[in-house]
């Protein structure tokens, strides 16, 4: 079985979507550990309830990013994962980390990348009055929120859309697309090529699709 380590910082609703997919045999692998940089992350409770090894690695206890990432690598390597999934992990990773796991780290970002990299994506989209917003799954590279996009989910932004309902709509789509992207990777149908994400052996689109 392919092994997955999930990194979180908070609620862990995307982690939950991955756990649910695994439970339904739709993940193509097994979540062997969840690591959080925050001890109060609710996702840790979700992990424990699912019987998954939950590890807290508080970033405050390390002098700098390099030291933190070295510790993170130690924990991750104990679990020998095929795939590392960032699910609301709110830390910038060092080039050392990114290179060590090149092509094996996926992230989900709450915008239609390359639009709205960084933080407060939903509020910025609302402030700009965009008609469409969404979420992107992408490979993690040295470029923050800049790695090749694998899959996106689009939501329409209503005239009087509130921040709260927009977040809700986008997150609901995140929970649909992230387990699919993870499964594609774990089944060997998705990989990072020199020019971007590559897809193999995908099911044929339904006839009549334009
Ligand atoms: C998700 O909406 C994810 O897209 C976002 O954090 C949320 C985590 O929710 N990620 C980022 O902003 C990454 N920069 P969750 O903990 O409930 O999965």
From TrEMBL:
Active-site residues, record numbering mapped to chain: 109 (proton donor)
Keywords, alphabetical: Purine biosynthesis, Transferase
Binding site for (6R)-10-formyltetrahydrofolate: 65, 90-93, 107
EC number: 2.1.2.2
Domain Formyl transferase N-terminal: start-end pairs: 3-179
Site-annotated residues for Raises pKa of active site His: 145
Binding site for N(1)-(5-phospho-beta-D-ribosyl)glycinamide: 12-14
CC terms in the record's Gene Ontology section: cytosol
GO biological process: 'de novo' IMP biosynthetic process
Enzyme class per UniProt: transferase
Protein name: Phosphoribosylglycinamide formyltransferase
Origin species: Chromohalobacter israelensis (strain ATCC BAA-138 / DSM 3043 / CIP 106854 / NCIMB 13768 / 1H11)
Gene name as annotated: purN
């Amino acid at each position: 079985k392919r092994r997955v380590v999930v990194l979180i910082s908070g609620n862990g609703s995307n982690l939950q979507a991955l756990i649910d997919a695994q439970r339904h045999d739709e993940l193509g692998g097994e979540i062997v550990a969840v690591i959080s940089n925050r001890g109060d992350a609710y996702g840790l409770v979700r992990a424990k309830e699912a019987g998954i090894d939950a590890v807290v690695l508080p970033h405050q206890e390390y002098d700098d990013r390099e030291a933190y990432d070295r510790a993170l690598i130690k924990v991750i390597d104990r679990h020998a994962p095929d795939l590392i999934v960032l699910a609301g992990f709110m830390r910038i990773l060092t080039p050392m980390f990114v290179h060590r796991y090149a092509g094996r780290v996926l992230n989900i970002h709450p915008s239609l990348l390359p639009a709205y990299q960084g933080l407060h994506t939903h509020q910025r989209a609302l402030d700009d009055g965009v008609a469409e917003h969404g979420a992107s799954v992408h490979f993690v590279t040295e470029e923050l929120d800049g790695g090749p996009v694998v899959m996106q989910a689009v939501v329409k932004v209503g005239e009087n859309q509130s921040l709260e309902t927009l977040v809700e709509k986008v997150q609901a789509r995140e929970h649909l697309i992230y387990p699919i992207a993870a499964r594609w990777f774990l089944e060997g149908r998705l990989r990072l090529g020199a020019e971007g994400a590559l897809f193999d052996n995908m099911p044929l689109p339904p006839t009549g699709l334009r």
